């Protein structure tokens, strides 16, 4: 294979696959990117067998063919080249020659035959999502995805089409807090969508990056146990998390006993101040709700303590409750309205947070003992 | 130059017993573990005169001394007295390193002027301990921990030995190497094999040979023989965080029956879980130790999917390890240990089932804190006798996670 390509185009393509390639290097070819040249197009493919990505870029293909090479090394090389045409030449025994201006590199690759097969998508029935909507829905739920690899069924976002409203719902939880969003989509029901599925953490990150790249629509469909998302000339395929998502509806409080209305900006900044003196292990901050007043406080036996008062709208009973300030900040950081509603029962029951004007979003957060 | 003081209670357990029961004073007594199969833990100086030593079986001890009085250990009393004595030592410097239940190092470098010198502090400590607890102690004063400990060993009971830096080379020249803290019987014999009997000889021995044989320990041995020790006195508050929580116990009878072993593991798991929860840690690695009747001992550990602190979870993990072993002989000792610890934060679980479990454990601990361990317990533990810890571990400390309540 032999081709020339604009440096910027090549670099962008290689940058996109960096998040996908296997870092643990258990199977060497998985840390490589597959380059295939044909019909005036260069196709780049990377996979770790869980999440894969394939996209095509315009290139001047002088001799078609395919080869694989370390995605990281090739990216590092291309990044440092001058803005110019890059010439790429695959020679015998998978040796690759990269030339740009007067710089020349010879690197060894692996045969394309060793690279796992990237499934051909059939594009049967698919769901269309606006990029901006997809980005918003992921942003508002992703932070609650569990980081604990042992809780594999919580290592992703649960997606399901709500039959009664026709809304698409995304839910994430780590067993301490939960974040959920419902948004209407123009779509016909499919068995997978109605039953619900869990998108894996790594796949979601790639999906979010794809959604952030310009407007346009994302198309989602399913193949076997995979979700396939395509946009423009890029396809992401991810294996769905094989597990049961917990019955989250039971943890969403139904009664609203003590209800407070709080300005997002002032609570956010107050919490950022309080967290500085919270215990490093727990990040706990105490919230004291009084008549139209919220008193926040934190203390750390090794450092000292902090206190701040906020004017809020609250007519409920006096209530004192501890929360992990990080969890609250995560929620506040993704709000686009200026006020939120905090609905609490007592210091041992889950609290509900949602924007003042219903927009399909809610978060549930479990208190901590301080 | 620092001034380090080492204080060592003489025949601590026996002395405490003789103080609490005047009928035992002046008579040969030996404290044995409260378990049936326990050995001699400490002998009074009267019994030592007959040759009764720590570690002897009861039978061996009676062979030496017919009129020996055996006293079962009252561990609670010893830990209580130790806690009081250690608190008293802090009157002279905040730098007190508790070395074991009856030994401590004090860094006096900063408080010499306040109390007019190290020897006066030593006399004050000795007289206060004697007046308040009736116990005598031996004290060593030297420029470092190694030498301070060596000094306190010189005169027992009730001694006070000061090593001045100018005398040290002379003192060490003919000092047998086993006298140094850290050179045990095995290492001592190996060194004797190289023709090294005294610290003087060890200090002059070619360092390269020691290094080749013992690696970095070789350097350390060489330094020790010349009286060099740079280790600081580390008070508990600033010592490294604990790495594990564990309990082990010798069984009343050797057990071969799986069910009986499991029942015992449940008890150990409860003890480990309680202590972990009290100090708000949870751990990801569970280790099971099994010692067979012939004293061969094996330990197996397993990383868990999640951080645990619940007694049931620790029990389940240890049974799983047990079932992966093919037991070759009846079991003499069992141990359960939780490691790879992290701090728990007080965060309550969101999902109802986990939350109920969390609250249940919390309520149970609350009752047991108030009314004693094992007040509310697993039904299968009801029949077991003598639950809880019966031996003071060498790592016992008056405060923190290592403060294990003993029966």
Write up what this structure looks like:
The complex is a heterodimer of chains A (370) and B (407). By secondary structure, chain A is an alpha+beta fold. Chain A has three domains: 113 residues, Roll (DNA Polymerase III, Chain A, domain 2), CATH 3.10.150.10; 122 residues, DNA Polymerase III, Chain A, domain 2 (Roll); 114 residues, DNA Polymerase III, Chain A, domain 2 (Roll), CATH 3.10.150. Chain A has a nine-stranded antiparallel sheet. An eight-stranded antiparallel sheet of chain A has the order 6-2-3-4-17-16-15-10. In chain A, α1 packs antiparallel against α2 and α6 packs antiparallel against α7. The longest helix of chain A has 12 residues. The radius of gyration of chain A is 25 Å and the shape is elongated. The model of chain A has no long low-confidence stretch (mean pLDDT 91). Chain B is α+β, with helices and mostly antiparallel strands and 407 residues long. Chain B has three domains: 163 residues, Reverse transcriptase/Diguanylate cyclase domain (Alpha-Beta Plaits); 59 residues, DNA polymerase, domain 1; 142 residues, Dna Ligase, domain 1, CATH 3.30.1490. Chain B contains 14 helices and twelve strands. In chain B, strands 5-6-1-7-8 form a five-stranded mixed sheet. The mean pLDDT of chain B is 83.
């Amino acid at each position: 294979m032999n081709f020339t390509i604009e440096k910027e185009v090549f670099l962008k393509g290689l940058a996109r696959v960096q998040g996908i390639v296997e870092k643990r290097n258990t199977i060497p070819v998985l840390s490589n990117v597959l380059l295939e040249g044909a019909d005036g197009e260069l196709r780049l493919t990377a996979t770790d067998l869980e999440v894969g990505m394939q996209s095509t870029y315009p290139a001047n293909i002088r001799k078609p063919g395919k080869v694989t090479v370390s995605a990281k090394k090739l990216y590092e090389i291309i990044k440092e080249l001058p803005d110019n045409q890059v010439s790429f030449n695959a020679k015998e025994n998978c040796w690759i020659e990269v030339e740009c201006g007067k710089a020349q590199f010879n690197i060894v690759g692996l045969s394309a035959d060793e690279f796992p097969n990237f499934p051909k998508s059939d594009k049967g029935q698919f769901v269309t999502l606006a990029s901006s909507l997809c980005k918003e829905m992921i942003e508002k739920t992703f932070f609650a995805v569990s980081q604990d690899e042992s809780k594999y069924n919580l290592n992703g976002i649960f997606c399901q089409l709500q039959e009664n409203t026709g809304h698409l719902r995304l839910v994430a939880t780590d067993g301490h807090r939960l974040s959920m969003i419902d948004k209407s989509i123009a779509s016909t029901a499919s068995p997978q969508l109605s039953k619900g599925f869990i998108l894996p953490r790594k796949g979601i990150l790639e999906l979010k990056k794809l959604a952030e790249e310009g407007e346009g629509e994302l198309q989602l469909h399913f193949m076997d146990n995979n979700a396939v998302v395509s946009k423009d000339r890029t396809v992401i395929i991810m294996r769905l998390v094989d597990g049961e998502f917990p019955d989250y509806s039971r943890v969403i409080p139904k009664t609203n006993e003590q209800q407070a209305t709080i300005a997002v900006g002032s609570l956010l900044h107050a919490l950022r101040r309080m967290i500085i003196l919270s215990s490093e292990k727990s990040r706990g901050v105490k919230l004291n709700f009084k008549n139209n007043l919220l008193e926040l406080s934190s203390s750390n036996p090794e450092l000292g303590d902090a206190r701040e008062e906020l004017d809020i709208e609250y007519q409920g009973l006096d209530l004192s409750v501890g929360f992990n300030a990080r969890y609250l900040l995560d929620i506040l950081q993704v709000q686009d309205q200026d006020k939120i509603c905090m609905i609490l029962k007592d210091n041992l029951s889950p609290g509900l947070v949602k924007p003042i004007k219903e927009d399909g979003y809610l978060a549930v957060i479990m208190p901590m003992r301080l | 130059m620092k001034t380090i003081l080492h204080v060592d209670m003489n025949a601590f357990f026996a002395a405490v017993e003789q103080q609490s029961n005047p009928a035992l004073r002046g008579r040969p007594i030996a404290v044995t573990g409260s378990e049936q199969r326990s050995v001699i833990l400490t002998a009074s100086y009267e019994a030592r005169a007959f040759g009764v030593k720590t570690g002897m079986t009861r039978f061996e001890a009676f062979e030496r001394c017919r009129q020996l009085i055996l006293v079962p250990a009252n561990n609670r009393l010893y830990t209580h007295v130790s806690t009081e004595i250690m608190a008293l030592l802090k009157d002279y410097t905040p730098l007190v390193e508790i070395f074991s239940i009856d030994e401590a190092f004090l860094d006096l470098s900063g408080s010499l002027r306040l109390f007019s010198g190290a020897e006066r502090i030593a006399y004050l400590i000795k007289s206060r301990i004697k007046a308040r607890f009736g116990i005598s102690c031996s004290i060593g004063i030297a420029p470092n921990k190694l030498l301070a400990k060596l000094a306190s060993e010189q005169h027992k009971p009730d001694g006070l030995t000061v090593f001045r830096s100018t005398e040290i080379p002379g003192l060490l020249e003919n000092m047998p190497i086993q006298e140094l803290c850290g050179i045990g019987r095995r290492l001592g014999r190996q060194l004797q094999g190289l023709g090294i009997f005294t610290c003087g000889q060890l200090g002059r021995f070619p360092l390269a040979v020691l290094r080749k044989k013992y690696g970095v320990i070789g350097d350390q041995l060489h330094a020790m023989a010349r009286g060099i020790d740079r280790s600081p006195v580390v008070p508990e508050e600033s010592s490294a965080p604990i790495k594990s929580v564990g309990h082990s116990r010798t069984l009343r009878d050797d057990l071969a029956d799986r069910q009986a072993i499991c029942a015992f593991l449940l008890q150990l798991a409860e003890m480990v879980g309680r202590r972990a929860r009290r100090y708000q840690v949870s751990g990801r690695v569970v280790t099971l130790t099994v010692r067979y009747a012939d004293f061969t001992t094996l330990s197996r550990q397993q990383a868990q999917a999640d951080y645990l602190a619940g007694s049931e979870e620790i029990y389940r993990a240890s049974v799983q390890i047990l079932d992966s072993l093919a037991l070759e002989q009846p079991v003499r000792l069992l141990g359960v240990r939780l490691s790879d610890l992290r701090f728990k934060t007080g965060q309550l679980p969101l999902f109802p089932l986990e939350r109920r479990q969390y609250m249940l454990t919390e309520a149970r601990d609350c009752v047991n804190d108030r009314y004693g361990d094992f007040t509310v317990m697993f039904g299968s533990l009801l029949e077991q006798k003598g639950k809880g810890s019966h031996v003071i571990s060498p790592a016992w400390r008056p405060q923190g996670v290592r403060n294990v309540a003993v029966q």
